[in-house]
Design brief:
By secondary structure, the protein is of the alpha/beta class. The chain folds into two domains: 119 residues, Response regulator (Rossmann fold, 3-Layer(aba) Sandwich), CATH 3.40.50.2300; 114 residues, Orthogonal Bundle (Arc Repressor Mutant, subunit A), CATH 1.10.10.60. The chain is built from twelve helices and five strands. Helix 1 packs across helix 5, helix 2 runs parallel beside helix 3 and helix 9 packs across helix 11. The radius of gyration is 25 Å and the shape is elongated. The N terminus is likely disordered.
């Protein structure tokens, strides 16, 4: 899993058979040590966790449990519009169960004994795929984009992509791209390039800094690539810009 992802996600295993709960818990934590795996031995415990633990991204839910069954859990999750993905696990091949589960929007229907590779695939998809963007007010959207802009300005020396921002801030790539165009009026790449060039112009005023050092501070490991980008964006090479600004200082 990407180490940049700071938020602690939870996976729930709900089954009235202790051996199945423990088996899935061991399997998941062995491959995803950063995840917290919660357990529920009946439907009521399952629902209590899902309704109070918003960090729960994925739940493996047995279709037959005491108190509340798996299909009822699916219905409750859909009605409450909770941001959790449900996987039904069942010892029954009855098509009607699967049909009802799919109607409630479950992401998969696994038959017991479950295939470990299916479990790990579903965990990977759940914890690395950002949630759909919530309905934000315009003020909230402005706060989100300002938070992203601040992070960009603080990390101009690093390589970054929209996917990096998506994983860090937990919004989809398309949603962040839309926010840039809506709130700033430009795309992410254009904004990032402008920030880097503005920072480079400021650093070029310091004669003690070499061009290679400035390039690294604005995210370029190759000084030649930096010079090409600077000339394309500013019309002149960085060395000429430095000389021109130096002359302006001496004549002012």
């Amino acid at each position: 899993m990407d180490q940049k992802q700071e938020q602690t996600h939870r996976v729930l295993v709900a089954d009235d058979e202790r051996m199945i709960r423990q088996g899935l818990q061991v399997l998941i934590t062995r491959h995803y040590r950063e995840l917290t795996v919660l357990e529920a031995s009946n439907g009521q415990q399952c629902w209590d966790i899902l309704s109070t633990e918003p960090e729960t991204r994925l739940a493996f839910v047995d279709i037959r449990m005491p108190q509340i069954n798996g299909l009822q859990i699916c219905e409750k999750v859909k009605t409450a519009d909770l941001p959790v993905k449900i996987v039904i696990i069942s010892g029954f091949r009855d098509f009607e169960y699967a049909r009802q589960a799919l109607r409630y929007g479950v992401v998969d229907y696994l038959l017991k004994p479950v295939n470990p590779s299916d479990v790990l695939r579903l965990v990977h998809e759940a914890v690395t795929t950002p949630l759909p963007p919530p309905e934000l007010t315009e003020r909230q959207e402005r706060l989100v984009i300002e938070q992203i802009r601040k992070w960009i300005h603080d990390h101009l020396h690093e390589d970054m992509t929209l996917l990096d921002l998506s994983q860090r801030f937990q919004y989809s790539v398309n949603y962040i791209s839309m926010l840039f165009k809506k709130e700033i009026g430009t795309g992410f790449q254009e904004y990032l390039l402008d920030c880097r060039m503005q920072r480079a112009k400021h650093l070029l005023l310091d004669p003690a800094l070499r061009i290679s050092e400035i390039a690294q501070q604005v995210g370029y490991t190759n000084p030649k690539a930096f010079s090409i980008s600077f000339r394309k964006a500013c019309g002149i090479p960085p060395t000429e810009y430095r000389e021109m600004r130096g002359r302006e200082k001496t004549t002012s």
